[in-house]
Design a protein that fits this description.
- It comes from Rhodanobacter caeni.
- With 337 residues, this protein is of the alpha/beta class.
- The protein has 2 domains: 1-91 and 247-337, Isopropylmalate Dehydrogenase, CATH 3.40.718.10; 107-239, 3-Layer(aba) Sandwich (Isopropylmalate Dehydrogenase), CATH 3.40.718.10.
- The protein has 11 helices and 12 strands.
- The strands form 2 sheets. Strands 2-1-3-12-11-4-5-10-8-9 form a 10-stranded mixed β-sheet, with helices on both faces. Strands 6-7 form a two-stranded antiparallel sheet.
- It binds 1,4-dihydronicotinamide adenine dinucleotide (NAI) and magnesium ion.
- 1,4-dihydronicotinamide adenine dinucleotide (NAI) binds at residues 13, 69-72, 82, 243-244, 259, 262-268, 274-275, 278, 317.
């Protein structure tokens, strides 16, 4: 894999947290080169296009992108750039780790859950959504395929093996959604047989919500369809203290895009107080993807150490008095040490 990555600084707080993140990556000595490309409002202003072709070409060329949050303009019929990127590169796996960090306002301390969400089909196909002419009847067709279900379930098991995880839980609603969720569950049961070393269990989505809140320690890797994964992964982010610490990896066969789950935070943009951790954790996942697992782990540990021992340097959203820069400085010091 090439050592050049496409970098999209993004809108709002994007450039601030991206600068901090690249500074930390440089301090880690990963040997990465950055090819900066535009998307979002910056691209609309400069090139008259939210997602210029040159940006797509660069991502295709480098196969890996680190992406800041993008503002989706309201009105004017703009499609979300994020959705377009997922479709264009067929980024079928949305991987969202939720890990407890010290000093957050979370109710729990030992959570380490990875949600693997199917990112391309299910209830989120725009083609399946219709409204009758009189506006009285709305229909939404969920479509899951054997191919789509197989590749996401296999991805989850392979991830579990690679990361030394013990259990995969398939979350579904096959008791009611007998065809769409049923197909997914059947495929999950079949594929689980190929991984006897990993415990497999299945859970209905409503019960999963309750179990996640009451006994989150029982979960390890969750694999599920698009809509359930969207909701459950935010629930998991809430269990560990919110979006400031939530990375989101979008993985396909030919490209992968790593980003923070949060948006461009216009309310705090330019103030220098954005928490860079979600993007840093996405960068750590990117290092894993680039076969630099030791560097990824070092980065995660440096974030953890900073949050435990350097409370003054962390940003206000997690109870500190620091800034984006002071937080990044403290992490840089630790990855160098
Ligand atoms: P948001 O995630 O930008 O902000 C929600 C709240 O969380 C705000 O109070 C914000 O200050 C805070 N926050 C978010 N990230 C933070 C960080 N790193 N450090 C400290 N505080 C942080 O969500 P919102 O306001 O709904 O969306 C703003 C814009 O972002 C919209 O245009 C939306 O479309 C876009 N967006 C883009 C995403 C992406 O590119 N992946 C994802 C979500 C939203
Ligand atoms: Mg969501």
């Amino acid at each position: 894999m090439s050592n050049t990555i496409a970098v999209i600084p993004g809108d709002g707080i994007g450039p601030e947290i991206m600068t901090a993140t690249l500074r930390v990556l440089d301090a880690l000595d990963c040997g990465l080169k950055y090819d900066f490309v535009d998307a979002g409002m910056v691209a609309l202003d400069k090139h008259g296009d939210l997602l210029p072709k040159a940006t797509l070409d660069k991502i295709a060329e480098h196969k890996v992108a680190l992406k800041g949050p993008l503002t989706t303009p309201i009105g004017g019929g703009f499609t979300s750039v994020n959705v377009t990127l997922r479709r264009h590169f067929d980024l079928y796996a949305n991987v969202r780790p939720a890990v407890s960090f010290p000093g957050t306002k979370s109710r729990y301390e030992n959570i380490d859950i990875i949600t693997v969400r199917e990112n391309t089909e299910g209830a989120y196909r725009s083609e399946g959504q219709t409204l009758s002419e009189d506006g009285e009847i709305a229909e939404s067709v969920a479509r899951n395929t054997r191919k789509g279900s197989s590749r996401i379930v296999r991805y989850a098991f392979e991830l579990a093996v690679k990361k030394g995880r013990k259990k995969v839980t398939a979350v579904h609603k096959a008791n009611i959604l007998k065809t769409s969720s049923g197909l997914f569950l059947n495929v999950a049961r079949e594929i689980a047989k190929d991984y006897p070393q990993i415990e497999f269990n299945e859970m209905i989505v409503d019960n999963t919500c309750m179990q996640l809140v009451m006994r989150p320690e029982q979960f390890d890797v969750i694999v599920t369809t698009n809509l359930f994964g969207d909701i459950l992964s935010d629930l998991c982010a809430g269990l560990v203290g919110g979006l400031g610490l939530a990375p989101g990896d979008n993985i396909g066969e030919h490209a992968a895009i790593f980003e923070a789950v949060h948006g461009s935070a216009p309310d705090i943009a330019g103030k220098g107080i954005a928490n860079p951790c979600a993007l840093l954790l996405a960068a750590a996942d990117m290092l894993d993807h680039l076969d630099m697992v030791a560097k990824g782990d070092k980065l995660r540990q440096a974030i953890r150490d900073t949050m435990t021992n350097d409370r003054d340097s962390v940003t206000p959203d997690i109870g500190g008095k620091g800034s984006t820069d002071s937080f990044a400085d403290a992490i840089v010091k630790r990855v160098k040490g």
